[in-house]
Recover the amino acids of this structure.
């Protein structure tokens, strides 16, 4: 089957008293609407990896993630859609949860591994799949030059220009791709990324390795709320209020942290009046399944 999927990712304006008071025009690119499961940057990062697997006549996708990984779920769904076999190597002890249920429902085989072994993913791939000529390695989160290429196409789709673009950051692949797209189109846009990890300054190295040319961008490392997958009551309240006020579903792991940062920076007068700001909704709303007990 040809690896192709129509992209439907509209841009909607976010109306809010804070933005009105600051004279800001804030918009959100709804990558969460691309596909109900292979949504947001997950599809963009997988697109050219799937094409590469197909061109190499590989039929078995092998990838990695935690027990609540949106990437694992997206890969499982993409494999089912395009006719691949899929295996997910899961970090940590064997568990069952809603995310892994959906992975299995889409036909993905799951292998659980201890956290020390998980750190060396190429070695794990070699250990389990050295004898499988059909196996195709996909790094955690789809981190790869192919993933960055897919994410760069987001900029091609924009019909308006923006002074600032914001995106959450996990592996650095999405950020690198967007920066590459900004440079390709020679835009004066300032790019901002919000790492979701504690002590997230290391992500700059991960971003830079996928850049086509060196670039200046802003890292906002103070909005991790305790680290990856962590959220405090303030962040949960923000997510609940945002969803209730806009009708746009977000989660507290990626997009919630990025939007909190944007709102907080706006409140601290970080943007000139009249600025046009675009936030990227990177999908992954299934991450809510692992945190639903925190909300009500």
């Amino acid at each position: 089957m040809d690896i192709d999927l129509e992209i439907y990712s509209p841009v909607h304006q976010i109306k809010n008293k804070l933005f009105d008071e600051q004279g800001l025009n804030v918009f959100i690119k709804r990558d969460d609407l691309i596909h109900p499961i292979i949504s947001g940057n997950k599809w963009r990062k997988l697109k050219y990896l799937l094409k590469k697997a197909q061109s190499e006549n590989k039929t078995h996708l092998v990838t990695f993630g935690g027990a609540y990984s949106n990437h694992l779920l997206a890969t499982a769904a993409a494999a089912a859609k395009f006719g691949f076999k899929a295996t997910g190597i899961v970090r940590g002890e064997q568990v069952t949860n809603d995310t892994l249920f959906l992975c299995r429902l889409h036909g993905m085989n799951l292998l659980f591994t201890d956290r020390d072994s998980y750190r060396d993913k190429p070695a794990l791939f070699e250990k389990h799949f050295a004898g499988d000529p059909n196996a195709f390695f996909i790094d955690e989160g789809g981190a790869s030059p192919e993933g960055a290429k897919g994410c760069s196409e987001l900029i091609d789709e924009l019909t308006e220009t923006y002074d600032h673009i914001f995106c959450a950051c996990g592996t650095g692949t999405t950020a690198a791709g967007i920066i590459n797209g900004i440079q390709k189109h020679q835009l004066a846009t300032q790019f901002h990324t919000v790492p979701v990890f504690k002590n997230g300054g290391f992500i700059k190295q991960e971003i830079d390795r996928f850049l086509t040319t060196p670039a200046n961008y802003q890292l906002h490392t103070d909005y991790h709320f305790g680290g990856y997958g962590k959220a405090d009551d303030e962040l949960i309240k923000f997510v609940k209020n945002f969803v209730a006020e806009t009708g746009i579903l977000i989660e507290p792991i990626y997009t919630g942290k990025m939007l909190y940062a944007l709102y907080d920076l706006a409140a601290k007068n970080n943007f000139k009046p009249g600025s046009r700001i675009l936030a990227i909704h990177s999908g992954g709303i299934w991450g809510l399944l692992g945190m639903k007990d925190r909300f009500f």
Summary: The first helix runs from residue 17 to 22. The CA atoms of residues 198 and 222 lie 8 Å apart. The mean pLDDT is 95.
